[in-house]
Design a protein that fits this description.
The complex is a heterodimer of chains A (130) and B (517). With 130 residues, chain A is of the alpha+beta class. In chain A, a hairpin with a 2-residue loop joins strand 3 and strand 4. With 517 residues, chain B is an alpha+beta fold. Chain B is built from 14 helices and 20 strands. The radius of gyration of chain B is 23 Å and the shape is globular. Classes of the chains: A alpha+beta (130), B alpha+beta (517). At the A-B interface, strand 3 and strand 7 of A face strand 1, strand 2, strand 5, strand 6 and helix 2 of B.
Chain lengths: 130, 517
């Protein structure tokens, strides 16, 4: 009977830790660039961010830089490389994923996933009209 | 011609910026054209060509597949006006614009304005136009309460402020560049007030359509005439707005709010304000409750050599979590008695009465500044003729008295729009009543009660296309009348001549409104 109670306690601890650990997947940090004078409002961004899950490895000992280009099919050409943004980045958001907490525990911090979102700027000064 | 670059996201879900419940759903694909060819950027003198070719190619593809397509702006609409489950076009990368035209491009009647005339692509955001126009000592004639909408999205749904003499955004638009069926594209403007010459249409490579009804239908066409590539409008010489906010009692303002006789208010400046607005807390209407707020903006030209007002943003700005809105939502459902007090404190915090202190002055881009997604925000907004404002307000209060939901009522005033289905179409003045709030079960029930109570009151209510509303054929006909509705439908049939073409640019909301003929 006492064995069942202790198994029950362990199960509750595991479930509780999983729930709280999973909730950390909502943690996020964002940087938002501001536009030009005289308003300094938040810089216009495109609707949808470019998103990827990146891995921090070996307690930060392995540098991870995300600097992607897109690969687009053009007729017979399988891959024409194009920039992801025409006007730079206006907003970056880094967040834990649902697996960040559990991977940190399971790998002792050797491999930790983070999600990065980058929004292309949609800000543009005027051109001369025709 | 090279292939335009179009990013595609297949079998995805779409929701609006505010994540309003019931707005959006699964879509076949979201297509995002960019201002470049796959092989590189376009020629700088014809910088728009790749983006335009992208829109043309999308229409041709959708038509060949017999599917439907709608364009997205900044997706700020709180209704399903932009949604269809086939293809959505993300226009946010089409954000280039020009300022000034050479003489051969504009009609002689607009010669004096040509240096401040703008051609903006559909995805150009209000905040972008504000910031860069102000650097050139120019301003938008009017805008909504914030700055993140795209110019075409805001125009297409009838976005407005409370600039009574100017009207809404669509009221200063001079022409539309629309990609219609078969991918043919047209420069659409009024026959009675053409702004651009054949040379401009030739620069775009567009057919010219000069027709008042087609223009007045398409300018508030909520995506139903095709994919709008760009618009032309004239900016104004730069001006400032000075804000005055008074907190007062319902009894002290109700007559002015429903007649626009402002004399009894003894406002600090005798001139009629550029912007006049009244906000009520429906649960604080007693004497001494201080549940009414008058907000005015006074417009003044900025002298030729006067410096632009400096920015006044918080340099270390951090934002509250939008999830707090959900807490409010929960409270309004679980503890309705908390609603009046919470609403009063929220109104005092956001409207910030100026009292007798000096007015707050800034450029329009500094006054109507950033807002953040509400993560579940919703709103109902209707327009009625000013002489029906009191009856309508009483109907709204009958609902809020019986059914507590966290919703202030904001009244604004606009001249009637020429756009056939602009919800601000009522002459001589449209009084708009906005009831924003949080998307809770209580709010859903209250909205249904509001629609019925307003219908029973017999007022000619029209509903903002970008907010919640009854949106049935019956409600559209009752609000706009047979003449406006039938002219809108006829103009759409004249512009999109085939049934398949009209189906391509329709969606369930258009069908529910009886407009997808």
């Amino acid at each position: 009977m006492s064995r069942f109670r202790s198994w029950g306690s362990i199960a509750r601890v595991v479930v509780g830790a999983s729930v709280f650990g999973g909730v950390t997947g909502c943690y996020s940090y964002a940087y938002q660039a501001r536009g030009t004078d005289p308003d300094l409002q938040r810089l216009a961004s495109e609707l949808k961010p470019h998103t990827d899950v990146r891995w921090s490895m070996w307690w930060g000992g392995h540098q991870d830089e995300w600097s992607p280009v897109e690969c687009v099919e053009n007729g017979s050409q399988k891959c024409v490389q194009v920039p992801q943004c025409d006007k730079g980045i206006s907003r970056v958001e880094v967040s834990y994923t649902g697996a960040t907490f559990i991977m940190t525990i399971l790998t002792l911090g050797i491999a930790v996933p983070m999600e990065v979102k980058a929004w292309c700027s949609a800000d543009s000064g005027p051109r001369h009209g025709p | 011609m090279p292939n335009p670059l179009i990013e595609e996201t297949h079998a995805t879900n779409w929701h609006n910026w505010h994540r309003t419940g019931g707005v959006g759903g699964p879509v076949r694909a979201i297509l995002k054209p960019r201002n470049r060819w796959i092989t590189g950027p376009p020629d700088q003198t014809r910088w728009f060509e790749a983006g335009l070719a992208g829109l043309v190619s999308i229409v041709q593809r959708v038509q060949a597949e017999g599917r439907r397509v709608r364009a997205l702006g900044s997706t700020w609409s709180l209704s399903s006006v932009a949604y269809v489950d086939d293809y959505l076009v993300d226009t946010s990368a089409l954000c280039e614009w020009t300022l000034g035209f050479s003489a051969p491009m504009v009609e002689p009647a607009f010669a004096a304005e040509r240096d401040r005339m703008v051609f903006a692509q559909c995805g150009t955001q209000i905040r972008t136009l504000n910031a860069h126009l102000e650097q050139s000592r120019l301003c938008l004639p009017t805008q909504g309460a914030s700055n993140g909408q795209t110019i075409v999205g805001a125009m297409s749904t009838g976005t407005h402020g409370s600039a009574r003499d100017v009207g809404s955004i669509q009221d200063y638009i001079l022409g539309l560049h629309i990609v219609g069926e078969d991918g043919a594209h047209h420069w659409v403007e009024r026959k009675t007030r053409p702004a651009m010459t054949q040379a401009f249409a030739d620069w775009l490579g567009a057919n010219v359509v000069r027709n008042d009804d087609v223009f007045n239908a398409a300018v508030v066409g909520f995506g139903s005439f095709g994919l709008i590539h760009g618009v032309v409008f004239a900016a104004e010489p730069v001006f400032t707005l000075s804000r005055y906010v008074r907190q007062t009692d319902y009894d002290d303002v109700i007559v002015a709010a429903t007649t626009l006789d402002l004399a009894p208010l003894a406002l600090p400046v005798p001139a009629t304000p550029f912007h006049f607005e009244v906000v009520f807390n429906p649960y604080r209407r007693g004497r001494g409750d201080k549940g009414a707020f008058i907000r005015t903006y006074y417009k003044a030209p900025l002298g030729q050599n006067a410096p632009l007002p400096p920015p006044s943003v918080d340099g270390n700005a951090t934002i509250r979590s939008p999830d707090l809105v959900n807490v409010f939502s929960f409270l309004s459902d679980a503890v309705p008695d908390a609603v009046p007090g919470l609403l009063q404190s929220q109104l005092e915090g956001s409207l910030r009465p100026t009292g007798n202190a000096a007015m707050v002055t800034g450029l329009p881009g500094q006054i109507f500044d950033d807002t953040l997604p509400t993560n579940g925000g919703t709103s109902v907004e209707l327009g009625v003729p000013l002489d029906e404002a009191r009856t309508t307000l009483d109907a709204i209060f009958r609902v809020t008295d019986k059914h507590r939901f966290g919703a202030p009522v904001a009244l604004r005033y606009l001249r009637p729009s020429d756009a056939l289905l602009a919800f601000t179409c009522h002459a001589p003045t449209t009084c708009t009543m906005e009831i924003p709030g949080i998307d809770s079960a209580t709010a859903h029930t209250a909205h249904g009660l509001l629609y019925r109570e307003i219908e029973d009151a017999g007022v000619r209510a029209t509903y903002h296309w970008g907010q919640q509303g009854p949106f049935t054929a019956q409600s559209v006909m009752a609000g706009y009348g047979t003449d406006r509705v039938s002219r809108w439908i006829a103009a759409r049939m004249a512009f999109l001549t085939s049934k398949a073409g009209r189906h391509m640019f329709s969606n369930p909301m258009l069908e529910a409104c009886g407009l997808s003929v």
